[in-house]
Automatic annotation (TrEMBL):
The keyword DNA-binding is annotated on this UniProt entry: no
Assigned keywords, A-Z: Cell inner membrane, Cell membrane, Cytochrome c-type biogenesis, Membrane, Transmembrane, Transmembrane helix, Transport
InterPro entries per the UniProt record, alphabetical: Cyt_c_biogenesis_CcmB (IPR003544), Cyt_c_CcmB_bac (IPR026031)
Protein's name according to its UniProt entry: Heme exporter protein B
Described purpose of this protein according to its UniProt entry: Required for the export of heme to the periplasm for the biogenesis of c-type cytochromes.
Naturally occurring in which organism (per UniProt): Simiduia curdlanivorans
Keyword Transmembrane: yes
Length: 227
């Protein structure tokens, strides 16, 4: 990697972090949603600890997925509105690498906080002790997958004023495998079975997403900008 490209990536990463800090309310919404929904589950379904322990892995994963969806519409929206996206498209540096920096920041301000909150929410749902480490590990890998996959949908709909619902329809089928293996890994750990296979599959999905999603996002952004 050349020095100019390394500087460009560092500048892009720093810029995205600053923008995320200025738009704190946009990134706080998914975490608030995550916390509120999990808090209301015992009140709305059942306060029984044994019943909540059964629900906990799937419930936490489903709500984490939905919380991630809330932040996707804004991923490229501000860049489109202020013209930064056009500058990104005509940059002499590879667009997929610049997009990679943007997706990484998205995960840092959405997926990572959701992962760090998960032990507290697991405690609220009476998650057995055996499930905490698998929950954190699966969310750590899985939320990164969600950010990469979701970025493709966000790029495809960035030129649409109300693309939030369309994003969900586009990417939800691709979210399903991540949800299944993430929740199943936690459930198997609670039941005393090996869960490393599910984590390995999540890792493979993340590797595939890192290798392909930036190129798909770059192509989708070019298509959206021409539309």
């Amino acid at each position: 990697m050349s020095d100019s490209l390394a500087r460009a990536l560092a500048q892009q990463f720093s810029r995205e972090l600053k923008l995320a800090y200025r738009a704190r309310s946009d990134w706080a919404n998914p975490m608030i949603f995550f916390l509120l929904v999990i808090t209301m589950v015992p009140m709305g379904i059942s306060p029984d600890a044994k019943f909540l322990a059964i629900l906990a892995p799937g419930m936490i994963w489903v709500v984490a997925l939905l919380a991630t969806l809330l932040s996707l519409d804004a991923l490229f929206r501000a860049d489109m509105d202020d013209g930064s996206l056009d500058q990104l498209l005509i940059s002499p540096h590879p667009l997929p690498l610049l997009v990679l920096a943007k997706i990484a920041v998205h995960w840092l301000v959405t997926g990572l906080p959701l992962t760090l909150m998960s032990p507290l929410l697991g405690l609220m749902l009476s998650l057995p002790a055996e499930g905490y480490v698998p929950l954190i590990m699966s969310l750590l890998i899985g939320t990164a997958c969600l950010s990469f996959i979701g970025a493709i949908g966000a790029a495809l709909t960035v030129s649409l004023r109300k693309g939030g619902l369309l994003i969900s329809l586009i990417i939800m089928p691709f979210y399903v495998p991540v949800l299944i293996f993430g929740a199943n890994g936690v459930s198997r750990a609670i039941e005393g079975f090996a869960h490393t296979g599910q984590l390995a599959i999540l890792g493979a999905l993340l590797a595939l997403a890192v290798a392909t999603a930036p190129f798909a996002v770059a192509g989708a952004l070019r298509i959206s900008s021409e539309g």
